């Protein structure tokens, strides 16, 4: 099954709306990447995609990637150096656990949206929106194979 089929148009809208809302309050950038399989370590794959999606090129190094391999049931959240210096040490792990708990209920879009809101709150606290802020990265979900 194509990875696009895991999400309805309404699901995709729920996720991209969560990104847009989170980003209206911060200069930070959030992306979601979804694919079917992740054959290796989930954090290694997320780091590879983080660079491939050019998330490391944000001015304040405050990008956050939500990565999901649907068939392999692997999930990771990866923050760039700027945001990682600011959030509590267990923030990404606790956020990941919140998302995974909801995913186990079968509500993937809601789970991702909740995690995005949590990340957005931290980004807002540490990287507030600036009036000259530019949306540096796409808000659309990127899909792999």
From TrEMBL:
InterPro entries associated with the record: TPM_dom (IPR007621)
Domain spans labelled TPM: 5-120
Top-level division of the source organism's lineage: Bacteria
One protein family per Pfam: TPM_phosphatase
Record protein name field: TPM domain-containing protein
Lineage per the UniProt record: Bacteria, Pseudomonadati, Bacteroidota, Bacteroidia, Marinilabiliales
């Amino acid at each position: 099954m194509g990875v696009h089929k895991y999400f309805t148009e309404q699901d995709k809208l729920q996720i991209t709306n969560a990104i847009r809302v989170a980003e209206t309050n911060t200069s930070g950038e959030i992306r979601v990447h979804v694919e079917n399989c992740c054959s290796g370590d989930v954090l290694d794959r997320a780091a590879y995609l983080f660079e491939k999606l050019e998330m490391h090129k944000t001015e304040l190094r405050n990008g956050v990637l939500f990565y999901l391999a649907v068939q392999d049931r692997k999930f990771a959240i990866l923050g760039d150096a700027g945001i990682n210096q600011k959030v509590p040490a267990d923030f990404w792990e606790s956020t990941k656990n919140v998302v995974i708990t909801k995913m186990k209920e079968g509500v993937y879009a809601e789970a991702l949206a909740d995690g995005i809101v949590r990340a957005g709150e931290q980004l807002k606290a540490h990287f507030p929106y600036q009036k000259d802020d530019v949306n540096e990265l796409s808000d659309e979900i990127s899909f792999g194979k």
